[in-house]
Amino acid sequence: MKGDFHIHTYYSDGVFSPEKIVNLAIDAGLQVIALTDHDNVLSYEVAKEYLKTKSVDFKLIPGIEVNTLYKDYEVHILGYFPDVNKPDFKSLLKTQQLARIKQTKEILRLLSKKEGIKIPFEDVKEMVAEGGSIGRPHIAKAITNAGGTSSVMEAYSKYIHKDSPVYIERKTVSPFDAVEIIYDSGGIPVIAHPYDIDIAEKLIKELMNCGLRGIEAYHRKHSPAIVEYFSTMAENLGLIVTGGSDFHAPNVMNGQIILGKNFVPEWIYDKLLEEKRNIDMA
Question: Are 55 and 118 within one domain?
Fold first, then answer.
């Protein structure tokens, strides 16, 4: 089935509602998608209810992308089919959300104190859907909206990095905790866009001890050579391969909406279902 297994909505740092994403995916000829917002799962139920109004054969996978830190690396862990009612999974979501709020409030305090850029927390909060995940893109946009910079990119370069005097690192969970909690909830933990991590192979092997079950080899940032590299690694380690567009907003350069339809193999959905059955039977 044609699918895209890495998509964001306005419940995190995407620009579209879950309903809009479903419509765009159907229009793009996709048959299955996974909504993988950062540190929350709220978009799934919204999209699921909306699908009841559509007369199409279209499948929706519950998913999440957990932002974690390991040493100096930001490691993102995708989770597919988690039982969101498991106590440890619910606790994970709460921990991540509180960390996001604390980070945002502290950065806003320092912006006001050190740079004279005054931004009410509510101005940032209103950029995401109710209960959604506030993140650095929202802070950067709020800085620009307040006149602190002339563009979001300038806001990033001046304020949203660890060397900035107003930036505070988020106190997030480790990738090991994220993998273990997703796996224990019956979900499939997958390391996202591993090309971003220069210690990926070593880390992947360590994460397997906690239940890592897949590598996102297909990604819009991965060249064919990188796809082959991580696909081979997955095969050698006995892991599944996944992929997705990591869609946040339309690409204004080429008009593409859901990039996954162009490069994600159709067999990935079957592998996800097979892996889910294996986990449930374990």
Answer: no
pLDDT of residue 192: 97
Looking at residue 282, its pLDDT comes to 75
- pTM comes to 0.94
- We report the CATH number of the domain holding residue 177 as 3.20.20.140
Both tokens of 277, joined, read 């059955």
Q: What is the CA radius of gyration of the chain?
A: 19
Read off the DSSP letter of residue 77: E
Burial of 24 (C-beta count, 10 Å sphere; 0-12/13-18/19+): middle
Specify which residues 219 forms β-bridges with.
Answer: 244
Q: Which domain holds residue 42?
A: 3-92+172-281
Q: What is the mean pLDDT of residues 159-163?
A: 92
Final residue of a structural domain among 159, 182, 208 = 159
pLDDT value of position 221: 86
Residue 83 domain flag: yes
Q: Could you read off the pLDDT of 48-103 as tens digits, one per residue? A: 999 999 889 999 999 999 999 998 899 999 999 999 999 999 999 999 999 999 99
Q: Which residue among 112, 127, 159 closes a domain? A: 159
In a domain, 124, yes or no: yes
Q: Which amino acid is at 28?
A: A
HSE on the CB side for 200, CA within 13 Å?
20
Q: Output the domain CATH number for residue 101.
A: 1.10.150
Instruction: Tell me if 165 is assigned to some domain.
Output: no
The residue type found at 240 is I
Distance CA 38, CA 170 (A): 14
Q: At residue 149, does pLDDT exceed 90?
A: yes
Q: Is residue 19 part of a domain?
A: yes
**CA 122 to CA 11: how far, in whole Å?**
16
More confident residue, 221 or 192: 192
Q: Contact at 8 Å (CB) between 274 and 180? A: no
